[in-house]
Amino acid sequence: MLLRGRRAECLALDRLLEAAHAGQSAVLVLRGEAGIGKTALLGYAAGRAEGWRVLRAIGVESEMELPFAGVHQLCAPLLEGLTGLPTPQREALGTAFGLSAGARPDRFLVGLALLSLLSDAAEEQPLLGLIDDAQWLDRSSAQVLAFVARRLEADSIVLLFAERGPGELDDLAGLRHLELDGLTDTHARELLASVLRGPRDERVRDRLIAETRGNPLALLELPHGLPPAELAGGFAVDSALPLPGRIELSFRQRVERLPADSGRLLLVAAAEPIGDPTLLWGAAERLDLGPDAAGPAEAAGLLTIGARVTFRHPLLRSAIYRAASPEERRSAHQALAATTDPKIDPDRHAWHRAQAALAPDEDVAAELERSAHRASARGGLAAAAAFLERAAALTPDPAQRARRELTAAQTKHEAGATTGALKLLAAAEAGPLDELQHARLERLRAQLAFALSRGSDAPPLLLAAAERLEPLNGELARETYLEALAAAIFAGRLGSGRGVREMAEAARAAPPAPQPARTIDLLLDGLASRFTDGYAAGVPPLRQALDAMFREEGHSEDDIRWLWLACRIAPDLWEDRTWHELATRQLQLARDAGALSVLPLAATYRAGVHVHAGEFAAATALIEEADAITEATGSAPLGYTSLVLAAWRGQEAQALELIEASREDATERGEGRAITLAEYATAVLYNGLGRYREALAAAQRATEHDELGLFGWALIELVEAAARNREPELAAEALERLSERTRLSGTDWALGIEARSRALVDEGQRTEDLYLEATERLGHCRIKVHVARAQLLYGEWLRRQNRRIDARETLREAHEMFSTMGAEAFAERAARELLATGEQARKRTDDTRSRLTAQETQIAELAREGHSNPEIGAQLFISPRTVEYHLHKVFTKLEISSRNELQRVLPSEAREAQPV
Fold first, then answer.
1. Which of 137, 385, 427, 843 is deepest in the core (most CB within 10 A)?
2. Mutual orientation of helices 640-649 and 616-633 as an angle, nearest 10°?
3. How far apart are CA 847 and CA 73, in angstroms?
4. pTM for the whole structure
5. CA–CA gap between residue 262 and residue 282 (Å, rounded)
6. Half-sphere exposure of 443 (CA within 13 A, CB side)
7. Which of 634, 570, 641, 567 is nearest to 608 (CA)?
8. How far apart (Å, rounded) are the C-alpha atoms in residues 228 and 361?
9. What is the spatial distance between Cα 369 and Cα 178, in angstroms, rounded to a whole number?
10. d(CA 350, CA 342)
11. What is the distance in angstroms between the CA of the first residue and the CA of the last residue of the chain?
């Protein structure tokens, strides 16, 4: 009946089921107000899925704090398939569900495990997952299910979500959704006529249709609350409440007409979220309610008690619970707590006790805190924060309450709930904190400011926290100084008040490092020297810090946390080998741990190494992977490497669009480093296009501030742009600044860049020797884009010396290198020079890599290396079935029929796309 007028929506669901039956996964979010027909459409899909395995989960408002409760509810029928999962995935899912003990799993490794579990089950028969009231899923489940939904591609799986609307933390954002509107006037009249009996005033009918706005459940339920006289005469229709409130009122009125014992039984059922009849009857017995209490509720069609306890509609459950008095709710929860076994289900036992508590109770608060520790160990940080928040509210001692509020705020921050963390911080601040707790509070507030914008607000806050921590906890103070310095590096030119130098000066006054010094201590001391005494002073200690991190076999959690900073320092010191190794290690550690919160950043930094190695296909693949994960996790996209890659590719329109968007976003957030990166990318772009005046202006802007890892790169572009723009004094000045750094480094990368740049400025008898030195030195390192540029500049010089034959050979090689990389602007520049020598550059024919997408290349290379589909899927965070789907496309494009032929048809250069 509720599907009346939903023909288009039903057809859409039919098409999704047909596509999935053919092996094309489908995800849809049904969105609309309460009673609009979402649950009915889920029921329709279940009815149409003949021969499918149907999995169900329902979000319950009172269960929003229990970690992975929704996921467990959905996949409980599939748990026998856990044994077939790879060990890390099996352990992660088992720990999340409390089936086994283990280290806290990354919630998105749990997502990968769930993806594999669903994919394996779908091999046997198609799967339909129905998730109703998704707005009330616990946060861990919402994040994991959203991740799975975004990674489904080629499995016979349909996931249908129903939610009332996006909340403050909309984990389903970006998924395909269908907004449900009210029924048309005609269908609304038909539905209303089906429930109205006896005489009725047409004006009452029209008013009901208008006020319900075609909401099907409202049309069915509201007439139950109107006496026959009102329906016939139309004198007392109340429209003061919003529509969902009026539907709930109708439900409550129906419940109120039941015997008192039936109403009390309904309340117990509403307070018991998992629908377990044993728990229901156990609690009912403690309230002196017998089996006969269920009869009237079942006869009225409000409740069904079978293998599970189910309500007529999810809104009925919330209506019953909200209508009860606080005393009635506490009584129901007290009975449920007494019935729930604290050994089997300690967290629900604790939660029911908390809901039953009338006043602060340390015993209950302590039990909730223990539940928080269990939730955190299972990877449910959002649940842990909720337990701690409730524990704080029930804590009688003010100092203990403030401590729990501070811990809850820290946990909220780790869970990504910034707004909730800030609220708890304010509550903790009002309590009697000791000096160390006050300092920790200030540090957390500063960390939240940095997480919100990576802008200029955070550095002074972190500095204040570090100074306050100094006399209390020296090691924590040093770590906070490093956080302040790192935040100032991000703020860069937009730093307000105390900039990088001021932060570095303050850090130098920090307590001495413990012995033996930790890696973060070496990083702090090195960066403090770098930004106070200058580049030269920073080279030895920073090199020591990199060596320590490079030698470290098993990284601590803190060391892993700071690998990103080491990946900034290495190119600042022109250490290409160290940069490559650390970026590779960071990515591998993130993959091994399944740490999707870290993986996008790690993939982005590794992609940057690929760009400078001229491996644009590999960089593209990692950027796409990082983008897919940030979309799946709801994180902010990381566009840094995309910007640089677009500039090196020389695609002007795309690059300028990215550059301008990045500049605007960075300016708004106060992230000055991103502005410098945009200027550097602009200089690379215009040098490639041969528009040297524009390149010069961008390079000058990029070198206005000494940005870690960028200043030296920008000087390279400034030397070339100034030399080509016939501004020798400017070029010479930039060369001198560049040489100060390259000579201190002494690596082949550094000295090769210096030789190439000096050849541009000091054109004379040594010019050719300098170009030859540049190509030789750069040829020994991984920075192949600059090898090609050295060849290009050398070829241009040879042509101007009228050595056309020599120039042709050098330019031909440069053109081939740029074309192979995909550096279109530089390749075209080489082609123009080659044409000036009298030779036409050969156009490259379509090669194997150009026929494959970046993801197909990744999968093909991993398959060629002998990895199985599950292994490839685990590495790329896709299902084995999706791997098989892409391999089929690879075989078709390459005109082969087996993996064994990949070794023959894939050129060796394609190995660059393999993730490490």
1. 137
2. 150
3. 49
4. 0.72
5. 15
6. 25
7. 641
8. 50
9. 40
10. 8
11. 56
